[in-house]
Structures are given as structure tokens and as C-alpha cells.
Write a structure and sequence with these properties.
The complex is a heterodimer of chains A (534) and B (293).
Chain A lengths: L2 H17 L2 H18 L3 E4 L3 E3 L3 H24 L2 H7 L2 H6 L5 H34 L7 H28 L6 H23 L6 H6 L4 H15 L8 E4 L7 E3 L8 H24 L9 H9 L36 H13 L4 H16 L2 H12 L4 H4 L5 H4 L3 H4 L5 H30 L3 H25 L3 H13 L20 H23 L3
Parallel strand pairs in A: 2-4
Antiparallel strand pairs in A: 1-3
Helix pairs in contact in A: 1-6, 2-3, 2-6, 3-6, 3-7, 3-8, 6-7, 6-11, 7-11, 8-10, 8-21, 13-19, 14-15, 14-19, 15-19, 19-20, 19-22, 20-22
Chain B lengths: L2 E10 L3 E11 L2 E6 L6 H8 L7 E6 L2 E2 L4 H5 L2 E4 L11 H11 L4 H14 L15 H12 L6 E5 L7 H14 L4 E6 L2 H7 L2 E6 L2 E6 L1 H7 L4 E6 L1 H10 L1 E8 L2 E7 L8 E2 L4 H17 L1
Parallel strand pairs in B: 3-8, 3-9, 6-7, 7-8
Antiparallel strand pairs in B: 1-2, 1-4, 4-5, 9-10, 11-13, 11-14, 12-13
């Protein structure tokens, strides 16, 4: 069998395995939602007060930019599980025993990721057609103008996303939650690079095209030039936004992107970067060698020179006569709810497995909240203090599925409500452990408005994590959403989105307390539904 | 103490019928639930352990329908599932402390019980090591320990000896025998020797239906006089397999010794004392023949 045929079958099998899961329907649903958001003007492309006439060129460009900006972020979290799945299903161990090279494997995973993302782009491109036909501003469909931005800009950017997802999975430090957080900042940096080349108002140069990862500067630059021709007063401002803008009052006729060699060369460069990243991933890929798995490495580091636990089995012979008569019978009393013990056990479970540096960081943030001025602590330090435990919170509600302990836990009486509330309480205690310094500071200063905001934040974040964890059984959705929300809301003190209440002006504690109650209720209801019995 | 399974059926999505009108009444003792892969054993275990609901029928624990009051059975239940996981960053003690808290045991009782159980399953020496570094058999023993945490009146163990070495398997069989006095133990497996060593009752299940429920002695009686040992050459082995139902083959210096089941006796075959594996295979083949007829 030649190599291309092997590659085809590897990509095909992986792709089919993904698309036959129910979660793939959610993925497609997200693409459909993005298309709907463009149709309903929830996602808006505007150049000051101008928008384009809804013709093929305009809608194609809008959809193309939506694909490159939103799918490069969400798509990463959707596809960053290709190697993980092979590890979990143990298919990886079978593959590792074949002649397949490491670079071949990472390339196949990149292509499979890309195929999934391309499917999402395809849905979006079809949405552009539906939107044009339904708006009826210009019923003439030009397929090249309609589809080319999504296919050329979207697919090239998503090829990089696909390769980055594989690279992150092969790097031990980025494989799990840390990688999910880091990618958000990588994406922000790449997007900022694109936007920076546009807002600086430089003439279109080759460098500008090459730095434009998403294609946003290439498209908006040409659009701005066209608006300038009809309105010399136009300030040059342009944005792709999710709501919040005053509706455009004027329209202009966008005739479509002038494709040039610099655009094609720059897209080619990003494809080459994607290929390099895919091959770079092969360098770090451990070929499913259990000796390189993290827990085993940690185990060895902790006990140098000691034999493996399994090896100790043969050292001493078990006493075959030892029997249940050695067990002290338990008194048959009416079972009591020992909630405190369960909270302690959940907290231990939440905190265990992190290096000393995590605890040092948490302690440092607690002290910094207490030692800083009240304004600095509330608007700055707490933002860091409540980003620090994101990887602890993201485990809430997912552990039982992740480690297959569900039958052990939920066959106990009253386990669902008790264990759920204990998990949430442990999450709140984690918020207190890292950001409790501010709570204490506010109490001492008798700033009760601030204390209410702090309390709402400490209760809301674990509730959000728990609800996402229980409903999705995956850490990634919370990690992605929380990091993005943290960046937009608390970091920029945006009222309504600032769940930490970092300034008096942006604080809405009552709303977040109500949301907290709803989220805990949603988590409980979902778990009841999933478990049949509760 | 009584567990009654009354006409229980389970239909999964896609209309797969895993159990069909399964009925059984259990009193203290060890019930060996035997059946081939895919017979419905794990589905039945999951229903009894309140992990999933029956589509039809009832499960009664001391007269209480567990569908209406699952906690009636959960408070006295010890369950070792076929597939379960552990938290890799916790030690055996911490993991058992966690599950003891979930089961509502007070701290002092849990501490004493965990010490004794770890001794019982031979994990005392590694009690403080992370579970992530445990071998498969050691994790299985942690599973056995957690099932006994609350001193259960109903103990359900699904394929419990999978992954255990021979020494640990013997130890576990002894443990099950000891446990049977004052409680109901349900041992689901397809390893006949596990059942042979421990069960006071046997239920045979195939394609979701109950094939037989009897004591081991009664099952053996069914196959009395129907098992013969026959020595054939290696060249004749395939022909013999085509002609007779064979429960085992052993190669020796004088040829291949095969155990032939059924009324038809090959020439030169000698009657032998049947074992439980013979009875199991005979009952299953009779059931299949009856079903196809």
C-alpha cells in the first residue's frame, strides 16, 4: 500500500470517528449559529456608518472573516483531541506498533483536524448563499465572489489552527488545560497582529499581507479604500463586532476583493507554516510510549531508585488465609449526611496533582490581594487571582466521566445532590483560597458593595464551571469560555460582563448571584437526566 | 433479606434488547451469573446497582421497588463494576476516604475500615502511593476494597477477577466464599472456575434470557453420563470437532484427549465425571438448539 493511500485511510478513519459522534452535531450547529448571527446582524461588519449592499461579494467577505476570526478560536478547542482520543481508546498503542513514522502520524492528525474545520467552513459558505437569497438586496449570485474569501482566507488560517492543535497535544505542558489557556493568548496575539497592520493605516505592502494571519487587514484595507473613494470624510475605522454597534445608516457597493499575487503568496506562506507546525509536532510526539506519560514521570521523580509499584507484587506472598473475619462489622445505623467530610474529600481531590509552584502562586495572590491598595486589589490583583485556579475549576463535574468513577459514586445513596453541592462548595473554597485576601480586605474596609461583588464572583465562577463540566463532561468548554469572558469582562471592566465586580461601575452582583443559582440548578437537573436515577 | 427480579427487560437505543423478561429470586449466598460475552450480564448488574433503569419489570429489595426508592438498595449495596476508573493523583487511602464520604461513613469508622480492607486486599504496603502508578490488578483490588467499604448486604461484582494474578484470584475467591454467609453476593463472570469455587447457586444467562437457575450440584446432575473422554490423533481432531460437541482438548503423548458432550458416544470413549464447564456448555447448547427449533 503506498504512502498516500495509508495517509488517506488514517485521515478518513479519524474523520469518520469524529463526525459520527453526537458532539459533531453541536459543532455543525455552531457553524449554523454563526451564519444565523450574520443574518440576524448579531455579528456585524461595519466601516464607520457604512455597510456593504448584501451582494455575493459583501456576504462572501463577511462570512470569510467570520470563519477566520471565530473558527480559528473555537475550532482549536473542537479539534484538540485527536491524539488524546487515540490514547484513551488505546488505538494509539496499536498504531505505535506499525511502521508508521511519527511525522506521518502528526500529518494525518493535522489533515483530519483540517477536514473537520473545513466542514464547518463549508456550512458557513452555504449560509452565505442562504443569507443572500433571503435578504434580496441583490439576487444575483456570483459563486466565486461568495465562496472565495471563506475558502482562501478561512481554509489557510484553519490549516494553521489544525496544526497548532496537534502541536499543543504533543507538547506535555500544553496538552491539557494550560494549553487551552495559552492558545487563547496565542490567538489574541495573531488576531492583534492582523488588526494592527490594518489600523495603523499603512499602505498595503507585502509585509502587511504576510502578517495578516486572518485576512482581516487584506479585506478591510481594500473595503476602506473603496469607501474613501465615495466619502473622503470616512475616518478609516472598520470593525467586525458581536453586537453593540449602532446600525449602519449608509450602504456602499462592495465589488469584491482584488486578488493579487501577494495575497496568494501570503496564504501559501501560512499553509507552509501549518505544514512546518505539523512536522514540528512529530519531534515532540512520544508515540504513545507509557514511559513518557506524565503521571509515571512524576511517580519516578518522587521516588528515585524505588521499584515500580507493580514490581513489588512478587516481593511478598499474600496471606491467602486472611479473610473477612478480620473486618470489623459496621453497625447498621440510619445513614447520616456527612456533608463536611464530603466537602473536605472533594477539596482534596480538587487540589491534588498540582506542583508546589501552584500553591506558592495561590498563596502569593492571596497575600497580594491583602497587601495591595483596595483599588489595585479589586481592579487588578483579583483578576489574576481568579484566573490562577481555572484548571482546578474546569475539572468540576467532569472528573466522574473522565476517570470512569461514575458507577462507584452514583450507586451510593443521595450521591447526586450531595456530591454535586460538595463539589461546588470545594470550588468556592478554591476561590476563597486564591482571592480571599480581597474579601478580607473589603470586610476590614467595610466596603460592603465591593464585598457583595466579591461574594457573587466567588460563588458564580464555580457554579459556571460545574454547570459546564456536568453538561459537557469536558474541561475545554469552560476553559475556553472562561478565559475569553475573563479577558473581555473583568480585565476590561465591562459592565454586565464583569462577574468579579472589579470596579463599582462594572459590578452587578445581584445578577451573578441569580445566575449562580440557575447554573447550580441546571447542573443538578442535567445530572439527574443523565443518570436516570438521582 | 431478599432480592427479587421480576420480568425485567432492557431495551437500548437502536432497539437492542439486552434483557428479556428476566426473573430471579435471591436469598443470602453467592449467585454465580454465568453467560457468554454479550449475554446481558453487565446490563443486569447495572440495573441491580441502580446505574440504569429497566425498560420493563421490577426489582424488589426486601419488598421495595428500587425504581421508586433506589436509596433502599444503595444504602446496603457494594458494587464492583466491570469497567471503572480511579483518580490517579490520589493514593489508595485517599480514594477510599473519598468514596467512604460519598457513602456517608463517619471519619473514624471509615479510617478503621480502610485500614482493614487494604490489609485484606494486600495493598497496605503501597497505601500511600498514587493510584496512577498502580498496575491493573492493583486497581482491581482497590475496586474490591471500595465495594466492601460499607459492609454491604448486597454485593454485586462484575468480572471481578479480570486482571488479577493467580494468587490474587485464589485470595479473592476465598474472600467471596467468606462473605456469603449473611449477605447476597452476585458474581457475574464468564470464567467458570471462579463460579465453581464460590457459588452456592448458579444462573445461566444467554441472549438476555435466563437459561437455568439451579445449585451447582443440580446443574452437574443434568450432564451426568453425558461426558466422555476420547483420545484421538491430531489428524482426526478436526473431524471429531465437526461431529461432536467438545468442551476441552488436551494434548498428551498418546494423542489429543478430548471431552465429548452429549448422548452420542464415540467408539472407544470412556465416561468421566462432569465438571461445571461441561454443564455450562451443555445447557447453553441445549438452549440454543431449543431456540433455533
Amino acid at each position: 500500500m503506498n504512502r498516500s493511500r495509508v495517509l488517506y485511510h488514517m485521515v478518513r478513519a479519524d474523520f469518520l470517528e469524529r463526525v459520527r459522534r453526537y458532539s459533531f452535531l453541536l459543532t455543525l450547529g455552531f457553524s449554523v449559529y454563526l451564519g444565523y448571527a450574520v443574518y440576524a446582524r448579531q455579528i456585524v461588519l461595519q466601516l464607520d456608518s457604512y455597510r456593504g449592499v448584501n451582494n455575493s461579494a459583501w456576504l462572501g467577505s463577511v462570512i470569510g472573516l467570520v470563519a477566520t476570526t471565530f473558527l480559528t478560536l473555537i475550532g482549536f478547542y473542537i479539534v484538540k483531541n485527536a491524539i488524546h482520543r487515540d490514547r484513551e481508546t488505546r488505538v494509539g498503542q496499536i498504531l505505535a506498533t506499525t511502521p508508521m513514522s511519527k511525522s506521518f502520524y502528526t500529518l494525518s492528525k493535522t489533515l483530519s483536524n483540517f477536514a473537520v474545520l473545513a466542514g464547518m467552513v463549508l456550512i458557513l459558505a452555504l449560509a452565505a448563499l442562504v443569507i443572500q437569497l433571503s435578504h434580496t438586496e441583490d439576487p444575483h449570485v456570483h459563486f466565486i465572489a461568495l465562496f472565495s474569501p471563506a475558502l482562501i482566507f478561512g481554509l489557510c488560517a484553519l490549516a494553521v489552527t489544525a496544526a497548532l492543535a496537534v502541536l499543543f497535544e504533543t507538547l506535555p505542558g500544553l496538552r491539557a488545560g494550560v494549553g487551552n489557556i495559552v492558545y487563547f493568548f496565542v490567538w489574541t496575539a495573531l488576531l492583534s497582529l492582523s488588526v494592527a497592520t490594518m489600523v495603523e493605516g499603512r499602505p498595503i505592502t507585502a509585509t502587511r499581507y504576510f502578517a495578516d494571519y486572518t485576512g482581516i487587514a487584506s479585506v478591510l484595507g481594500q473595503m476602506a479604500a473603496q469607501v474613501h473613494q465615495i466619502d473622503p470624510q470616512y475616518t478609516g475605522r472598520a470593525s467586525l463586532s458581536v453586537g453593540g454597534l449602532n446600525p449602519a445608516t449608509k450602504t456602499f457597493l462592495w465589488t469584491g476583493l482584488k486578488w493579487n499575487s501577494a495575497i496568494f503568496l501570503s496564504r501559501g506562506m501560512w499553509l507552509v507554516i501549518a505544514a512546518v507546525l505539523a512536522f514540528l509536532a512529530a519531534v515532540f510526539f512520544n508515540r504513545f510510549d507509557p514511559a513518557h506519560e506524565r503521571s509515571q514521570v512524576k511517580e519516578r521523580k518522587k521516588k528515585p531508585g524505588k521499584p515500580e509499584v507493580g514490581e513489588q507484587l512478587g516481593v511478598h506472598s499474600p496471606d491467602l488465609r486472611l479473610s473477612v473475619s478480620h473486618l470489623t462489622p459496621l453497625l447498621r445505623t440510619r445513614p447520616r449526611i456527612r456533608f463536611f467530610s464530603l466537602v473536605v474529600a472533594e477539596l482534596r481531590l480538587t487540589l491534588r496533582g498540582h506542583g508546589w509552584w501552584w500553591y506558592m502562586g495561590a498563596a502569593g495572590l492571596f497575600v497580594a490581594c491583602l497587601a495591595s491598595s483596595l483599588t489595585a486589589a479589586r481592579s487588578g490583583v483579583i483578576v489574576a487571582a481568579w484566573l490562577w485556579p481555572v484548571l482546578l475549576w474546569s475539572q468540576m463535574g467532569t472528573r466522574e466521566a473522565q476517570f470512569s468513577t461514575r458507577p462507584l459514586i452514583f450507586s451510593a445513596q443521595h450521591a447526586v445532590p450531595r456530591q454535586l453541592m460538595a463539589t461546588w462548595t470545594a470550588g468556592v473554597l478554591v476561590a476563597v483560597l486564591t482571592g480571599g485576601g480581597l474579601g478580607l480586605h473589603l470586610l476590614l474596609a467595610r466596603d460592603f458593595e465591593g464585598l457583595a461583588a466579591w461574594t457573587a464572583g466567588a460563588l458564580f465562577i464555580p457554579a459556571l464551571a460545574l454547570a459546564f463540566g456536568v453538561c459537557t463532561e469536558s474541561q475545554k468548554p469552560f476553559e475556553a469560555l472562561y478565559t475569553g469572558w475573563w479577558y473581555i469582562g473583568p480585565l476590561h471592566h465591562i459592565r454586565g460582563l464583569d462577574f468579579m465586580g472589579t470596579t463599582p461601575g462594572s459590578s452587578t452582583p445581584a445578577a451573578y448571584l441569580a445566575a449562580c443559582a440557575l447554573l447550580v440548578l441546571a447542573a443538578y437537573s442535567w445530572r439527574r437526566v443523565r443518570l436516570c436515577y438521582a | 433479606m431478599k432480592l427479587v427480579i421480576e420480568d425485567v427487560s432492557k431495551r437500548y437505543r437502536g432497539e437492542v434488547l439486552a434483557l428479556h423478561k428476566f426473573s430471579l429470586e435471591l436469598k443470602p449466598g453467592v449467585l454465580g451469573l454465568l453467560g457468554p460475552n454479550g449475554a446481558g450480564k453487565t446490563t443486569l448488574m447495572s440495573i441491580l446497582a441502580t446505574i440504569t433503569r429497566a425498560t420493563e419489570g421490577r426489582v424488589l429489595w426486601n419488598g421495595t421497588d428500587v425504581a421508586n426508592d433506589p436509596d433502599a438498595i444503595r444504602s446496603v449495596l457494594g458494587y464492583l463494576p466491570q469497567d471503572f476508573g480511579v483518580y490517579p493523583n490520589l493514593s489508595a487511602v485517599e480514594f477510599l476516604q473519598y468514596l467512604a464520604a460519598v457513602k456517608g461513613l463517619d471519619a473514624a469508622t471509615a479510617a478503621r475500615r480502610i485500614d482493614e480492607l487494604l490489609e485484606l486486599v494486600n495493598l497496605s504496603d503501597v497505601r500511600k502511593r498514587s493510584l496512577g502508578g498502580y498496575s491493573g490488578g492493583m486497581k482491581q483490588r482497590v475496586g474490591i476494597a471500595q465495594a466492601l467499604l460499607n459492609d454491604p448486604q448486597l454485593l454485586i461484582v462484575d468480572e471481578p477477577t479480570a486482571g488479577l494474578d493467580p494468587e490474587e484470584r485464589v485470595r479473592f475467591r476465598n474472600l467471596l466464599s467468606d462473605l456469603s454467609g449473611e449477605r447476597i453476593v452476585i458474581l457475574s463472570t464468564h470464567i467458570v472456575s471462579d463460579v465453581e469455587a464460590t457459588a452456592t447457586d448458579i444462573a445461566l444467562i444467554s441472549k438476555g434470557t435466563l437459561v437455568a437457575h439451579a445449585t451447582p450440584e443440580a446443574l452437574l446432575l443434568q450432564v451426568e453420563g453425558k461426558v466422555r473422554e476420547w483420545v484421538v490423533s491430531s489428524a482426526d481432531l478436526n473431524a471429531a470437532k465437526q461431529q461432536f460437541q467438545i468442551s476441552s482438548t488436551t494434548r498428551r503423548s498418546d494423542g489429543v484427549h478430548i471431552r465429548v458432550l452429549g448422548d452420542a458416544a464415540p467408539e472407544g470413549a470412556q465416561p468421566v465425571v462432569p465438571n461445571l464447564e461441561d454443564a455450562y456448555l451443555f445447557c447453553l447448547s441445549q438452549h440454543r438448539a431449543g431456540a433455533s427449533a
